[in-house]
Each structure stands twice: as structure tokens, then as C-alpha cells.
Amino acid sequence: MEETRHLPFFVYGTLLPDQPNYFLWESDIVAMEPAVFSGGQLYDLGYYPMLVTAVPPKKVHGMLMTVDPAHYEAVLQRLDELEGYDPEQPEDSGYQRQVVEVVLADGRSQQAWVYLGNAELVKDKSVIAGGSWAAYTANSQPDLQTWWDTIRTVAGLHKK
Q: In whole angstroms, how far apart are CA 123 and each of 65, 79, 157, 158?
């Protein structure tokens, strides 16, 4: 079993404020600030994005979210379930929870958990130009919310 480190989370998709899954942890967030991950590429999987490491890397825009330590383990379980990530069997997941460096608006670097996807799963998917899911989906929030109202996890939705 992996060591659980109480790091903040870098989120870039449906866990952002004003996105369909923000409710999963909204009350447990104690701080948030804009951040950029400069080591990957963001892809459109329909109703959610997938971030994969890429060469050359692109900037992906998101938020660094700090969770109340008293609720950290419960939040971690909820997020792992949403992403279909099993820390006991990480190789069976479409997403891997990994530690990355992100850069905050003031230039500081910070380590954070991020859910990175498998590059094999995005071969036929569209790149999200500009690296911002929030900007990319600004005009389609009602459709996204309707789809997510029936989904609890993305586990099993990705096929190589």
C-alpha cells in the first residue's frame, strides 16, 4: 500500500469550483489558489478531461486545493473512487494518483497530488487547446451536470 501524504491536490477538471463534482469536497476545502502544471497535455474525454504527461509538455491550468486535515482521509477516498483509482491495485486504473510540482500565481512551486491518465487512453481524443477545462466547457455546463448526475465514478469508462 502506498504511503498517504497529506499534500494538497492539483485539480484541472470536474473537481474545480463551478464544475459538476466540486460538491464532493467543497465543504472540506480550507484553501484554494490558481496553479499551473507544466508537464502534460489535457484531453477531452467527453464529459471530463484526462491529463497525461507529454513531450513536449504543455501548461495545464487548474487549482491547488488544500483539504481540512481532519477530513483528509475521507476526501482522499471519495476522490480515488471518483477517479477509479485503487491504491491497492494502481495498475488497473485509468488514472494514477501521483505527486507533481505545480507553480502558483506568485511563482512559488508546490508539490501536490494529481490524477494522471494513461496516454494509451487518449490516442483518439481531442487536445484541449489552452490547457483549461473550465474555459473549454464554459458554455456546456448544463449538459455536463446532467451527465454527471447519473455517474459516481469513471472507473471502467476508459478502454485502451
A: 29, 25, 15, 12
- What's the burial of 148, exposed, middle or buried (CB within 10 Å: 0-12/13-18/19+)? middle
Domains and CATH numbers, the chain: 9-146 (3.10.490.10)
The pLDDT of residue 49 is above 60: yes
Q: Give the C-alpha separation, 69 to 73, whole Å.
A: 8
pLDDT tens digits along 2-28:
445 799 999 999 999 999 999 999 999
Please report, to the nearest 10 degrees, the dihedral formed by the alpha carbons of residues 113, 63, 12, 65 taken in order: 40
Provide the sign of the torsion angle of the four alpha carbons 64, 70, 76, 81, taken in this order.
Answer: negative
> What pLDDT band is residue 55 in, cutting at 50, 70 and 90?
confident
SS3 15: coil
How much of the chain is in helix, strand and coil states, percent to nearest 5?
A: 25, 35, 40
Q: What is the mean pLDDT of residues 59-68?
A: 97
